[in-house]
Write a structure and sequence with these properties.
Layout: H1 2-18, H2 47-61, H3 68-81
Length: about 90
């Protein structure tokens, strides 16, 4: 959570610095939808971009070949095995 909070703080600061160049996706009422992973203009990243970044991490650290979505299931299964209620 510390890393996520740090990332989010930097992301929000970047959003402020971008000013009117920030162009996020909007909800039906015209309000910004604030995603964690965005392009530099605030618009959501494409899932393929996240998969590409994940593959680079796998290669860099010589991790088992596991796609990004499977990582979610792996983590959930691990937490259940440790009796963590989330």
């Amino acid at each position: 959570m510390v890393e996520l909070r740090t990332f989010l703080g930097k992301h929000l600061k970047f959003k402020e610095e971008m000013g009117c160049a920030w162009n996020p996706l909007k909800d039906d009422d015209g309000n910004d939808i604030n995603f964690i992973f965005t392009n530099s203009d605030g618009y959501p990243s494409k899932p393929a971009a996240i998969d590409t970044a994940w593959r680079r991490i796998i290669e860099k650290y010589n991790l088992p070949q596991l796609n990004f979505h499977a990582l979610r299931h792996f983590y959930a299964s691990y937490m259940v095995s440790k009796n963590v209620n989330f």
